[in-house]
User: Fold these one by one.
Assistant:
Number 1:
Amino acid sequence: MKDIRTTVIGNATGDPRETQYPNGDISVMVRIAVNSRYYDQDINDYNDRKTEFVNVYARRALARNVLASVKKGQPLVATGRLGSTEWTDDDGKPFFSLTLNAETIGHDLTFGTSAFTKPAKAPKLADVPDLDYDTGEIKPAPTGQDEDGYDTDSLVGDVDADGEAAERALVGTP
């Protein structure tokens, strides 16, 4: 089945709402109000069409960036897969909503300016502390000793002036 890919341009009706999943992933939903105008030849003026509301969903990195960037009332451009949801309430009244699974979301620069900031990178593996999985405590950092018991943080004379390997001098005892 083919997806309907489309672009929605409108204003955020509220701040994005976050959903946290047990595996650590997040998603956000931001509702966009789409207002369009048309020229009415009968009155020689523009008229507003009915406002349509689209629930725009984003996941993972896009969701984190939307949370940090989007606020109520801001003009947005969102591109993604269009869908719809239908349901009935307890009284049997039918409801219908448009949804967009977003691939990209950004500010509409027709109405203002924006400053782009790359998010901070995730910590390197070396920066992540080593955990003891039995107790949940952080294990102490390695002492800097090599396999012979030499303190590698306190060695002197590793390389001589000619760049040749020199005898290691031990500072302290293993």
Number 2:
Amino acid sequence: MSTLATVTGLVMGGGLVGAGLLIVLTGHMPDFPGPIRDAGAMFALPGLGLLLIQGMGHGSGVLALICGLAAFASFGWGTWLGFRYLPLVLARSRDRKRRAEPR
């Protein structure tokens, strides 16, 4: 794995985990229809998956297998949360646009 790929993966993963933690700790994500912990998890879990993939690339044997399985699980859970709340967020956005239109 090249140094650039490693640094990019660590920065992106760390940024997503940081964004998720910031959402959970501040308790603020405008217009999110679900619990705030789900909003934070939608950002933090894919970031954790990226960090685990970096660990998988640098590990060997059982460590790489564990990192790979954990990355797969965190990507899956984060994606499931995203698809769970996406229709609700889009419906809320459409309703706001309709209310803002002059009649």
Number 3:
Amino acid sequence: MERSSLLPIYQLLDIEESVDGLLKKASDAANRYETLFRQGKWPALKMHAEVLADLEMRLHREVAERASIGNVLRDLLSERDAGLRSIGRKLREIDTPEADSDRKALMEALTENYADADKAVAAYENILNGIGSVFERGNNFARIFNIHEEQLISSSVFIGALSVLARLTSILNLSAEKLFTYEQKLKENQDISSEDRIRAVDNSVLTNLAENIKEETKTGFEILYTMLTKDADVREFRAAASNIITNVSPFTGLSAKWLGTYLYATNGTEDLSVRVEMLKSALAVAEWQNRAVLLRTYASFIVANTGSRDINRWYSHEKKRVEKRRFESLIPTGVYMEIDKLSNSSLYDGDMVQIEGLVQNLRIMDDPQPPKFSSIFELTDLKSGSIVKIRAHMFSLAANGLCNGGYCRLNGFLRKNESWLDPDGIGIDVDRVSLSVLRSDSWMDDITYRMKEYYTLYLNEMNLFNTPCISKLGD
């Protein structure tokens, strides 16, 4: 028997070097995103968004290409082992000097392969009995390949989400800075009154944008859910996910540009009714853009997994997730109340409400019941001037992207006679979204929960949405 016939075919693919190098590039790119974000280097972050987007596509491509190679190698290994098992059974039966030489060569090859005499003997007996796999390294190939495939899939989805966030954050702040710089140049050339400030009073732009993002996002989720329930072909499912990425991507730049412009412009809008409507529209854009990022993240997750070796098994598991789950989210919403109506309402302590307003005086406070810190802030109704105190127990909302001057809508529980409230005062405890529970009956909540590894829609499970923060200008 020729020793060369036992060459492990898996060595034709240099797995570890290429994967480790690619995963390191992904890790370095993610770290650079964090650095640029913390330093507020918006032009560089905008350029880096393109790097991240290209890297996502490369990772997707790597999964698909390696799956194709892996399937070929898997078949070759299977055929090799089947052939060698057949030869092994015959080899045991033949009593000739040539057969003795072949058996000796086989034993030497197995001893070299396993580097363990007992394991080599056991493998030798298995081969001559026509059972088992021939080489342990062949099994290691499958194990290593599967681990690397999972890492590449996870990395591709995470990098894809970062690419969107990098583009959103950079364009948002660059748009605000551009408006600020233009206004400063006007001031240098002439005196301008508050009435001459640059203001975005045409609210229809934001309103229409919010509706367009909402429609595209809802439709995208509905298409995917329907395809899963109708047992669509997996290639059509992948194509639908790819189309969704293409369709929702343009909204990233648009929403960031207009949010940056409007959120800066609202500071100079003295008409409160106009300012409130602008902030409400900005909040709608921010919320649906966040939901669009979730949709795009799930679509990237689909594209990556449908390029894998076990595409049919993965798709089978994905289809099972819709069997006992309704489409709609089960995340609770409270009774909508205007802030100035809270104290005169018939609501009881612990009733759930939904309110919105301007964030002010955001801070961390020691909370004695139980002993722990809490985020505290005042939510102000701009029209009435009414204020209500808000608490997020044991979480930093500032770390979650909430900031003073932002506009926020939240769901929470009415509180009275609490240690963190003024005497006879009322407040709201922000509700925490229990996705781990709700996901068992809701497909949308299941998607939101599973994608947390890559993109978190409800940071720390806080049941709220807010307009994004823009960097301080002119400091």
